[in-house]
């Protein structure tokens, strides 16, 4: 089961201040590329299949909801990547996709003898229809209000496993909660694990009061409020791209969803717009080669910063302006020769510029926004 909550709009990279001083800017963005190809799929076979499931007697809402289900699936992917970025990785859910790179939404009508309100009965029906692959997790949006969310606790590396969300709880976070159960979250033996497979260090998408389960810990707000409903908000119970040696996740890798083959460091999606340009600082010899692109999951800016060895500054800073304000990514700047990136959701305007500075220079970042 999953409590449903609102989640604050997320930034895909760290949300903090960084330093900066005066740059100047330059070249023109490239024209949008028509019909850009899908990028990033690594060809792995382990995938999450999204399904819309209803009974023959139920109203067919596939045409109405398919795109919305795809959006929810992509939002789960965004939040997974946000959590990966916190621990030095970049990960996305590996979904079954159409030839145009949109998330594939299967349209399934169960048998007239199958009770759509019975999780086990629906699973048996799906298995009889061939939705029983060992390299699949099935994320099911069920046309029933009989329950909010249900899932059988699965393993991080194999299927079939089934996560089901009822129509009264169709949302990315309810779906994400159940999907994470199928990937093994949360081991009751984790530092903040509960007997019911949840956690108690809130706010976290998997933290939940287990009600009648014995020895349940009361929920405690132990994570920064700014994170909202995060995925493993302290990166110590079920998700860390790079768990420190000696920690519980490092010693229990099969309980670490970030190591699941159902996630990938590469994602397949359609690029709607791409622009590129170089930005050069007014100070000693820093240049960023910035690419800004838009896909169905959001705007992204990536920049490789090249700073002259004679520069008095250790790093340059990529500044990102959204409707929520200005952010600098990453907070401490970009080490010479490294790459920085930020991803934000589709509904937010993205502008970028390059500044040169360090963590103690909090102002003076002036340049043309792009």
Report the CATH architecture of the largest domain: 3-Layer(aba) Sandwich
Give the beta-strand count.
Answer: 17
Q: End-to-end span in angstroms?
A: 44 Å
Strand content: 25-35%
| Strand and helix order | EEHEEHEEEHEEHEEEEEEEE
The total count of helices amounts to 4
Please state the overall shape, judged from the principal axes of the Cα atoms. Answer: globular
According to CATH, what is the topology of the largest domain? Collagenase (Catalytic Domain)
Biggest beta sheet attributes: 5 strands, antiparallel
CATH class of the largest domain: Alpha Beta
Mean pLDDT: 74
Global structural class: alpha/beta
Relative helix content? 10-25%
For the biggest β-sheet, the strand order reads 1-11-12-13-16
| Global Rg | 22 Å
Overall number of domains: 2
The unreliable regions are 1-40, 358-368
Write out key terms for the chains shown.
370 residues; 14% helix; signal; 2 domains; globular; Collagenase (Catalytic Domain); five-stranded antiparallel β-sheet; Peptidase M43 pregnancy-associated plasma-A domain-containing protein; disordered C terminus; single chain; alpha/beta
